[in-house]
């Protein structure tokens, strides 16, 4: 087992000493710090430490990439520093002191959606597979679909919808649970609240548009009537209700004695929230969500959609740096609920590919630099599988020109994608596997967009390096392939 004492000591010194550490923890590959004064951390010295594979700052945390041995390194660091490790949630909480209001809002949004994204990805893959077997006519089957010609695949198609419906139609349950978990309130109440938004007693949200006003069921309280409308697949109504429940529970716990809190806190939290969800929050949230999705869809469907696609593709990677990209999850899901698909997700997948292709060009340009390849090769693979942060912070922003090359390539691919109305069934796996989330009629054009997202960033990165465009930090020894300081 490697001895990390020396490198841990160097990191402690270069980060500004133990007095500069407000909180520290680690994830799968990185040390995560909340620093008293981030300016005291000497990034250049830290990145020269043998064990360190890169640094970046995100969401108020200074993160140091170590690799798979980070738990061992972390233990050595804590022994030397005397800092007691804390949980990731505690680090996130401490990191908020370094964030502005917008960053905090985006961090909250990220924390709400992060736990449910794996389910949404599975749902996207299931929808994609069901479309292939159930909606695409096959030439070798005389123009019929696989489902139409096979009892087995018809059964598979029907069975998979059980999972797809649970994920997308009952999405509000996941959102209200996640909010309760994030806020530290009673999670089962969050689940119950979500169920009350999608109960079979209610008129299904997908049936509202085709139901006459006089036929909509309602609760009659004598002095008032409340429509019994469900919020299947709706994001904003669920978020509004979830946060009301959480804040109401937190407020009630301040006044209700602990001896009776188990009885009265759940009752006076849940009942008013469910009532307000159907009376006020749900209708308002539905209108807000519909308005947002309509604006985005109008931009995507307008005669200037190519410009919208180019700008979104170009600017998505900078959004990742700021954390604002998390807002696209809610917009994607709202577009799926309102229009049956999303045009944003294909461009996000293409942006992932573009950043990975820029790193691939750096690997090619810096071939022989074994030290950097420990970061660049895993970062490129990660991008092609949909996770761009290691590439953006570890390589592309370090040299600048590959980052800009990737932005341009992503913009071009986004322009073509939007121009041809490439639509995804839902959020799915990013990067190269992103094609699995695309509606079948758009497979070919999306494959062309993927090729653009590979070729253009790679070519521009090589050209920018050769002609010194946007390049100030990458003098290379052409014989060794190593960076010359």
TrEMBL record:
Keywords: Cell membrane, Kinase, Membrane, Phosphotransferase system, Sugar transport, Transferase, Transmembrane, Transmembrane helix, Transport. Its EC number is 2.7.1.201. GO terms for molecular function: kinase activity; protein-N(PI)-phosphohistidine-sugar phosphotransferase activity; protein-phosphocysteine-trehalose phosphotransferase system transporter activity; trehalose transmembrane transporter activity. The active site is at residue 27. The keyword ATP-binding does not apply. GO terms for biological process: phosphoenolpyruvate-dependent sugar phosphotransferase system. It comes from the Bacteria. One of its GO terms (cellular component) is plasma membrane. It is a multi-pass membrane protein. The chain crosses the membrane at residues 106-129, 159-180, 187-209, 229-248, 260-286, 306-324, 344-365, 377-397, 404-430, 442-464. InterPro entries: Glu_permease_IIB, PTrfase_EIIB_Cys, PTS_EIIC, PTS_EIIC_1, PTS_IIB_1, PTS_IIBC_treh, PTS_Sugar-Specific_Components. CDD domains: PTS_IIB_glc. It is found in: Cell membrane. Residues 5-87 form the PTS EIIB type-1 domain. This is PTS system trehalose-specific EIIBC component. The gene is treP.
């Amino acid at each position: 087992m490697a001895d990390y004492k020396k490198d841990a000591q160097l990191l402690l010194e270069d980060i500004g000493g133990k007095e500069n550490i407000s909180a520290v923890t680690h994830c799968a590959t990185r040390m995560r710090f909340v620093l008293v004064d981030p300016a005291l951390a000497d990034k250049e010295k830290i990145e020269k430490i043998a064990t360190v594979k890169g640094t970046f700052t995100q969401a108020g945390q200074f993160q140091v990439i170590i690799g798979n041995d980070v738990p061992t390194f972390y233990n050595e660091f804590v022994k030397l520093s005397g800092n007691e490790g804390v949980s990731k949630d505690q680090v996130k909480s401490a990191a908020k002191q370094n964030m502005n209001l917008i960053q905090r809002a985006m961090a909250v949004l990220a924390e709400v959606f992060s736990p449910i994204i794996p389910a949404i990805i599975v749902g996207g893959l299931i929808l994609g597979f069901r479309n292939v077997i159930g909606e695409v006519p096959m030439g070798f089957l005389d123009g019929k679909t696989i489902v139409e010609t096979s009892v087995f695949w018809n059964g598979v198609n029907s069975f998979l919808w059980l999972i797809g419906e649970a994920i997308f139609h009952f999405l509000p349950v996941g959102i209200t649970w996640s909010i309760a978990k994030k806020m530290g309130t009673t999670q089962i109440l969050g689940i119950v609240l979500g169920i009350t938004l999608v109960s079979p007693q209610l008129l299904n949200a997908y049936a509202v548009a085709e139901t006459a006003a006089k036929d909509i069921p309602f609760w009659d309280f004598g002095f008032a009537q409340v429509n019994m409308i469900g919020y299947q697949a709706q994001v904003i109504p669920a978020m509004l209700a979830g946060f009301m429940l959480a804040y109401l529970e937190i407020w009630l716990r301040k006044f209700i004695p602990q001896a009776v809190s188990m009885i009265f806190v759940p009752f006076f939290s849940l009942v008013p929230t469910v009532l307000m969800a159907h009376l006020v929050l749900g209708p308002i949230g539905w209108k807000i969500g519909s308005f947002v999705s309509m604006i985005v869809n109008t931009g995507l469907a307008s005669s200037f959609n190519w410009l919208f696609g180019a700008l979104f593709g170009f600017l998505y990677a900078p959004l990742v740096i700021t954390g604002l990209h998390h807002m696209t999850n809610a917009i994607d899901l709202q577009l799926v609920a309102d229009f049956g698909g999303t045009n944003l997700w294909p461009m996000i997948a293409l942006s992932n590919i573009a950043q990975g292709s820029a790193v691939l060009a750096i690997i090619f340009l810096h071939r022989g630099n074994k030290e950097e390849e420990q970061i660049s090769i895993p970062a490129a693979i990660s991008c092609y599988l949909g996770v761009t942060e290691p590439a953006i912070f570890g390589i592309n922003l370090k040299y600048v020109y590959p980052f800009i090359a990737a932005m341009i390539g992503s913009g071009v691919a986004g322009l073509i994608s939007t121009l041809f109305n490439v639509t995804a069934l839902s959020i799915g796996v990013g990067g190269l596997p992103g094609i699995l989330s695309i509606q079948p009629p758009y497979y070919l054009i999306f494959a062309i967009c993927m090729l653009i997202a590979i070729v253009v960033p790679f070519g521009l990165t090589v050209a920018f390096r050769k002609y010194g465009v946007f390049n100030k930090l990458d003098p290379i020894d052409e014989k060794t392939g190593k960076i010359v300081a």
